[in-house]
Amino acid sequence: xxxxxxxxxxxxxxxxxxxxxxxxxxxxxxxxAEAVMxxxxxxxxxxxxxxxxxxxxxxxxxxTAITVIDNFDVEKEVVVPEQSVGTEGSxxxxxxxxxxxxxxxxxxxxxxxxxxxxxxxALTLCGSISNFVKLMNETAVKTGATHSNxxxxxxxxDNKHYTTARDLxxxxxxxxxxxxxxxxxxxxxxxxxxxxxGEKKLWINKNKMLFNFDGADGVKTGYTVKAGxxxxxxxxxxxxxxxxxxxNSPQMFERSAELLENAFSEFRLIKVIDPDRFDKVxxxxxxxxxxxxxxxxxxxYPVGRTEKITCAADFDSFADEDVHPxxxxxxxxxxxSKQLIFSQNIYTLNKV
Length: 352
What we know:
- By secondary structure, this protein is of the alpha+beta class.
- It has eight helices and 17 strands.
- Strands 1-12-13-17-16-15 form a six-stranded antiparallel β-sheet, with no helix packed on it. It has a five-stranded antiparallel β-sheet with strand order 3-2-10-9-8, with helices on both faces.
- Helix 3 crosses helix 4.
């Protein structure tokens, strides 16, 4: 006969139940598409038409940069090809035959939005624009962005070149978890070295958020007539990092600041599960058989002021003679306002 085993499991749950002070006001023009996302969890904090397929101008270079960082040696030295010199649009004024480290070109790409830097990276690292674009699309899919298509590495207009605010937020959250990418996009300035002459070039970041918004640490501006003003911004406060995407936004800096302020006002990043406060022993009534249990993962989640976190710890019934190491004995489920946000199986480890 099966006997229900008693268990002692302590899960530390920290949750916030706060009260809104009132409805937020929108002082600036709403963008054609918007998405505000918390980086660690990928939770969407606010959105507006986030799944509309739209051009995104030079915010494309977020995908270009993280594709390079994920696939190539950033210390590699590359020579500027004639084909990339004089590329239409914004430029860092590269000259044929100049030599740079890939890392320096990434700074020119992200701080000054150099279209010539984008083409130089694509051509020297992949041999052709089409080969590099294939990698860009693979990178996007890898991050979970499945409603985007990239035709070039810089964002110049093309009817087949598009993304969504949601996809761009997902890609940016992925990229911001990379230390080098974050180092580059958070830099207010950078001095690059042309390696054949030793000439120094100073590049100042075009992203005004870095200079004017508390906690700002990225990411990329963009503009074409077709795409309008586009901005992916990011900021961190009190341990919570947020990415904000606005596409075709007439007041892109002001609107982004407003959306970020709303996010920091309305949400807090809460440590929902602390594995160090998990009592990891399960035993039977006679206390003769006991097993250590696996710990749940540490888990943080952005919790809104009116939201409540609840936990369910469900354990199976089984006979003590059937218990073995590495056997599933239960499951932890975490809910935010009754919506499942986290689940993890619990397993027996060694017999105590």
